[in-house]
Structure formats: C-alpha cells, structure tokens
Amino acid sequence: MSGVKTIGIVLFDGVEELDAVGPWEVLSYWTRRSPEDGYKVVTLSRSGGQVACAKGLTVDAQHGYDDVPALDVLVYPGGRGTRPQLEDQAQLDWVRAQREQVPLLTSVCTGSLVYAVAGLLHGRPATTHWASLDQLVELDPTVEVRPDDRFVDDGDVITAAGVSAGIDMALHLVDRLAGRDRAQEVRRGIQYDPAPPV
C-alpha cells in the first residue's frame, strides 16, 4: 500500500518488556487487522538485530537507525536500559533529531526521562513511572509532572506512566489516529479490560 505511515517502537538493551511489547500488541493488532487505515508498526534499535530486554527476553529489532523508514510516530519505552542513555550524547542527539523529523513522539515509563534530558519536555506536562517522578523533576524542573495520569497527551508529545500504562497510551493513539470505534475494536480484540484480581 503506497502512502503507508509508519509507527516505530525503539528497542535497546535493558528495555522493559511490556513497555515495548504492550504498545506493539495494540498497534500491530490494529494495523494488521485494519490495513485500510494506512499505518504499519516496526521496531528499531541503534544497530538493528537482537536486543536483550530487562527481564531476560530477547527480541530482534527489524531496523537500525540507519535503515528505518521515515517515521510518523515514535514510541520510546523505558526500563533500566534508559539510565545509561541519560549520559549517552549520541543517543540524545538521535532523540533530538527525531523531534525535528517525527510529527508525534510518545514514551512509556522512564522513556520520558530520556526525552527530558534531550530537552523535549521543557515546560510541558508529562508523566513517567511512579518511582521515577522525582527524577523527572530533577532532570528538568520545568516539567509539569502529572503523577496521577496514566498518560499525558500534549499534542505532539505523549508520555505514559509505567509499564502497563503503555497499553492505555497505545489505545489512545489508535483513538487519535483512527477513531474511537477502531480503538474499541482493538481493545475488545486483545481482551484488554483491566480488573486486577489483587
């Protein structure tokens, strides 16, 4: 299909599994079931290939930074692997370059810490994992932290709270990009109806 728009999910060593796989499940269910909506979802990492996640799962990124298609949406997960990125100038420069090229940036969990250090959240509302809210403020005191929100949509940047909140954010993305009915179809399809047993 010509004119297909691309959603990219960033992978890196130490990425929290559900931060990436939760949005992947939502978005790939949508894009595979409804190709007429004009979106596809891919994974990318710095060099492509195998990535070791935070809790031992290994996954293969489909693209490296150099060969990924032009992105319309970027999903930046969190996990312990974000910590070294806060001082990785090459990674931060790459993130800043995405701000210039990608219309909509999203993050899950501590992915927002990377955005903060890169200067993308300056003066904006945002959230992150509950245990990292203080660190978010330390990294950029101008951020208007929203501790009680599962996700914060600030137009061209959406940040989500920890881990499972990425599923909520991804469903919100489907709602934004393809409408409420489609988002509800996806939610039913993946049987996402949280009612924790504990």
Explain this structure to me?
The chain has 198 residues and is α/β, with parallel strands linked by helices. The protein has one domain: 3-Layer(aba) Sandwich (Rossmann fold). It is built from 7 helices and 11 strands. A 7-stranded mixed sheet has the order 5-2-1-6-7-11-10, sandwiched between helices. Helix 1 runs parallel beside helix 6. The termini are far apart. The mean pLDDT is 97.
Short description:
The protein is α/β, with parallel strands linked by helices. Helices cover 36% and strands 22% of the residues. The strands form 3 sheets. Strands 5-2-1-6-7-11-10 form a 7-stranded mixed beta sheet, sandwiched between helices. Strands 3-4 form a two-stranded antiparallel sheet.
